[in-house]
Amino acid sequence: MPQAFELQAKKLPKQARSKATFDALIEACTLVLQSHGYAGTTTNHIADTAGVGIASLYEYFPGKDAIVAKVIERMNERVLTNLAKRAFNLRELPKEELMQAWLEQIYRCLLEEQPLLRVISYEVPYSEQVLNSHEMPQRLLQFSELLEYGAMEVLPQKQSKESMYLIVNLVVSSLTQLVVNPPPGLDAQAVIEELSKKMNQWVFGP
Amino acid sequence: MPQAFELQAKKLPKQARSKATFDALIEACTLVLQSHGYAGTTTNHIADTAGVGIASLYEYFPGKDAIVAKVIERMNERVLTNLAKRAFNLRELPKEELMQAWLEQIYRCLLEEQPLLRVISYEVPYSEQVLNSHEMPQRLLQFSELLEYGAMEVLPQKQSKESMYLIVNLVVSSLTQLVVNPPPGLDAQAVIEELSKKMNQWVFGP
DNA sequence: TAGTAATCCTAGTAATTACTTGGATATACT
DNA sequence: AGTATATCCAAGTAATTACTAGGATTACTA
Questions:
Q1: In this structure, are residues A182 and A191 in contact, taking their beta carbons and an 8 Å threshold?
Q2: Does any strand C atom come closer than 7 Å to the Cβ of A17?
Q3: Cβ contacts (< 8 Å) between B188 and chain A: which residues?
Q4: Rounded Cα gap, residues B40 and B34, in angstroms
Q5: Can you give the pLDDT at residue A78?
Q6: Crossing angle between the packed helical segments B188-204 and A188-204, to the nearest 10 degrees
Q7: Do B123 and A122 touch (CB under 8 A)?
Q8: Residue B167 CB neighbours (<10 A)
Q9: Strand D nucleotides below 7 A of a protein CB?
Q10: What is the spatial distance between Cα B136 and Cα B41, in angstroms, rounded to a whole number?
Q11: pTM of the entire predicted model
Q12: Taking a C-beta distance cutoff of 8 angstroms, is the pair A63, A5 a contact?
């Protein structure tokens, strides 16, 4: 299992043509991950799906893990962008409805990425090869920016470090779970309502 | 990647000698998983570490995933057994201290499995090959028995389905995260205290 | 103690897969 | 137009790895 230890793309595409193959490769990798899982994703298959030669893949990425890392990066960007858009509309809401609306928006953003998020959460190994070491070391906290963004709006007063850690962790992991592994016999909407009730108790106190 | 789709051991060991190799293989697999990660765990390496021939492994397991599944199963059994022992002492505690004590016990049980738990959580792919399909379909809820056990003692009144789902999910995922990926700059004990405060608010109401 | 079944091991094989080589083709630049 | 450079690809290779065949050894049984 000879693996490259570089993480970044070998070189950045300069011409428009190569930018297209670069993107096609990332898009193809996304598709293959969704349909075949991490273990079933081979570099040859990615290149085939993208419609380019295998060597082109290695022109831009040092190895399989690098391109998968890029796919994750792109997904994170999409989620954050979407959330920023959606969260903008929450400003006018009254305090009582804010928490639930906020949680719903996060849920929907995650839901849009469901098939990919599922593979990333359950199959892609969490290792230095895949995630840059300077990044947030917790996969669950990849979305922490997203939360800090919303948290400013939602949280009434400054929370302790421990409280903040728990809030971020709970919200992200609960909603991710709900998306990736919906509990049979439970309605997602109802779970979110229940969660927002509890979170309101949490942040506003008894 | 030819994989067997059976899950159970091919045959159960009948003589004492084979029971020993059976256990040695599982123990070896545990060690190799801890030291080399899931991807770096090969069947040959497992057999070597166990001190038996590779064919002996295939005598008792249809493939790599089957033995890994068995390792997970054994870990779950250990955790549940330990918790049952520890939880027994909680009966006399007053209501106010019960929640925190309960969370601490779960935390410690998980902490004892830290190296293995880390690999299982982050690297072992979550697939039908690894987890029996008749088992709880959520990995996080593998420990749900554990929680229901404690919950009877801790929860004051019957909770709604949604509430129960969230409580189980939150407790397990929070404590697992805390064990597997301790947040830098935060004290685990302090986080547990904070969590138990909030959980008390949730279940006892405002 | 002989026969039979269980257990084990050595030495493979076949298939997969990450990755490279060397040259062809397209693009940019002057 | 002509040259340099960027981009692409077909056809490999070398290493890994899951898994097996066939026979040797050990333990039960009568």
A1: no
A2: yes
A3: none
A4: 10
A5: 87
A6: 110
A7: no
A8: 20
A9: 6-12, 15-22, 26-28
A10: 25
A11: 0.84
A12: no
Q: How far, in Å, is the CA of B52 from the C1' of nucleotide C11?
A: 15
| Range in A87-91, A149-153, B179-183 the model is least confident about | A149-153
Residue type, B77: E
Query: What residue in A sits closest to B181 (Cα-Cα)?
Result: A138
CA–centroid distance for A2 within its chain: 28
Q: Cβ contact (<8 Å) for A38 and B126?
A: no
- pLDDT, tens digit (0-9, with 9 covering 90-100), for B70-118: 998 888 888 878 887 887 777 778 878 888 988 998 899 999 999 998 8
pLDDT above 80 (res B197): yes
Residue of A nearest to B41 (CA): A1
Alpha-carbon span A204 to A179, nearest angstrom:
27
Please give the Cα distance from B119 to B75 (Å, whole number). Answer: 12
Q: Are A105 and A87 in contact (CB under 8 A)?
A: yes
Q: Residue A135 class from Cβ within 10 Å (0-12 exposed, 13-18 middle, 19+ buried)?
A: middle
What pLDDT, in 10s, does the model give residues A158-187? 678 888 888 878 888 889 889 988 888 999
CA–CA separation, B206 vs B202, rounded Å? Answer: 8
Cα A90–B201–A187 angle (5° rounding)? 55
Which chain B residue has its CA at the smallest distance from A40's CA? B1
Residue A157 gets the label, from left (phi > 0), alpha (psi -120 to 50) or beta, of beta
Note whether A191 contacts B166, CB cutoff 8 Å. Answer: yes
Long-range contacts of B151-160 (CB under 8 A, 24+ apart): B153/B87, B153/B90, B153/B91, B153/B98, B153/B102, B154/B98, B154/B99, B154/B102, B154/B203, B155/B203, B156/B95, B156/B203, B156/B204, B159/B203, B160/A194
Q: Which of A68, A28, A172 is nearest to A110 (CA)?
A: A172
Which residues of chain B are at the A interface, by a Cβ-Cβ cutoff of 8 Å? 1, 37-40, 122-123, 125-127, 137-140, 160-163, 165-166, 169-170, 173-174, 177, 181, 183-186, 190-191, 193-195, 198, 201-202, 206
- Closest-CA distance, B13 to chain A, in angstroms, reads 31
